[in-house]
Amino acid sequence: MPESKGRPKPAFTPPRRTRSTEPQSNAPWFVPVMLGLMVVGLVWVVTFYISGINQYPVPQIGRWNLGVGFGLMLAGFLMTTRWR
């Protein structure tokens, strides 16, 4: 039985990218908000300790003031991972 001739295959060409490869910059408000969260969190925790614990910033939540302060700082630090 005769064998058929193989067809030459065209060389692979990757598809063109539609998006640009340049990293996009952040919005102008991003860095001030990021730094503001870290500073406000730090001031919150320092105020809690200096005020004699449970007087300021919010006396009703007691030691949860530490959680609020560290939460604000953590949000600011998490924003640094998206900073370009």
Automatic annotation (TrEMBL):
Name the predominant localization. membrane
What family is it from? Answer: Belongs to the CrgA family.
Extract the HAMAP family matched here: CrgA
Residue span of region Disordered: 1-26
Q: Which GO terms describe its cellular component?
A: plasma membrane
Keywords recorded for this protein, A-Z: Cell cycle, Cell division, Cell membrane, Membrane, Transmembrane, Transmembrane helix
- State the protein's name: Cell division protein CrgA
State its role.
Answer: Involved in cell division.
Biological process terms from the Gene Ontology for this record are:
cell division
Q: Where in the cell is it found?
A: Cell membrane
Q: Which organism is it from?
A: Phycicoccus avicenniae
Name the InterPro entries on file.
CrgA
Name the Pfam families for this protein. Answer: CrgA
Describe its membrane topology: Multi-pass membrane protein
Membrane-spanning residues: 29-50, 62-80
Specify the domain of life of the species encoding this protein: Bacteria
